[in-house]
Amino acid sequence: MPGLGDCRLQALDYHYQVEGGKYSRRPVDYPMETVNPLIIRDFSRCILCGRCVQACNEIQVNQPISFGYRGKESKIVAAGDMPLKESDCVFCGECVQVCPLGALVEKKSRYHWRPWNTEVIRTSCPYCGVGCQLNLHVKDQRIVKVIGVEDGAPNNGRLCVKGRFGYDFIYSDKRLTAPLIKENGQFRKATWDEALKLVADKFRQIIAEDGPDAVAGVSCARSINEDSHQMQKLFRAVFKTNNIDHCART
Ligand code: SF4
Ligand code: SF4
Ligand code: SF4
Q1: Given the CA of residue 164, which atom of ligand 3 is nearest to it?
Q2: How far apart are CA 202 and CA 199, in angstroms?
């Protein structure tokens, strides 16, 4: 695992009690890149191991980064040495996950995460039916970092931008906490029993008056596969209509 306070090189340095090398340190003139929305690149920490390039090109197959320049000028570059945001980078964060140092850091986690002060909770990504496995790093009841579970299907460590970075919505005060029923143009809070009975009664009424093809269902892209399966069962086997679809990923 990479990141601030979780440096594999530092750990090996400590393990082998390294006291200085026979090679002089490579001077670094490249400034830290902080303009990207989600990832900070600190070239002063990069050891040019190439893990980010390999992960991006061969695991995620996105290919915006590569080795640039030669000799002591060497650098991991994007789009001919532009900021990541100017390249084809999709900000999946796979490079951050494989970087053994703190050369690539999640912008949102910076100053908020240390491996020893967070609790790790495994869960499934809530965004789509792929069901990628996540390790949430939680501090003071808030998620501060997300890492893909490396030894588990279906993602084996990989995540897309939504699964890795899209967790702020959890803390939005705009989230619905109860069903809403619209009456006279206004929404009012309702209980689940009341809301489900209303929906069931409306379906029964419409089907009785106009037949099963008068109703249609769209399964949410964020539903798990099992829920989408149940949804099509409800429409096909219970309502007797094939008017069932699945909305595009959001
Ligand atoms: S965030 Fe993803 S697409 Fe962008 S450089 Fe890293 S691995 Fe490649
Ligand atoms: S994985 Fe990290 S240390 Fe290795 S080349 Fe990429 S940025 Fe540099
Ligand atoms: S949104 Fe992305 S990370 Fe989440 S389950 Fe789907 S593919 Fe995986």
Answers
A1: 3
A2: 5
Task: Please identify which residue in the block is written with the tokens 């501090």.
Answer: 139
Domain identity same for 132 and 81: no
For residue 95, how far is its CA from the centre of ligand 1 (angstroms)? 6
Instruction: State the pTM of this model.
Output: 0.83
Quick count: other Cβ atoms within 10 Å of Cβ 97? 24
Which atom of ligand 1 is nearest the CA belonging to 65?
A: 5
Domain span at residue 68? Answer: 1-107
**CA distances from residue 127 to 132, 156, 212, 246 in whole angstroms, order as listed:** 9, 17, 31, 14
Calculated CA dihedral for residues 155, 160, 164, 170, nearest 10 degrees = -110
Smallest-distance ligand from the CA of 33:
2
Domain boundary among 107, 142, 164: 107
Identify the nearest ligand to the CA of 94 by its number: 1
pLDDT by residue for the chain (250 residues), tens digit each?
444 566 777 788 778 888 777 777 667 789 999 999 999 999 999 999 999 999 999 999 999 999 999 988 999 999 999 999 999 999 999 999 999 988 999 999 887 777 888 999 999 998 888 899 999 999 999 999 999 999 999 999 999 999 999 999 999 999 999 999 999 999 999 999 999 999 999 999 999 999 999 999 999 888 888 888 999 999 999 999 999 998 865 4
> Do 15 and 77 belong to one domain?
yes
Phi (first) and psi of residue 224, to 5 degrees: -75, 160
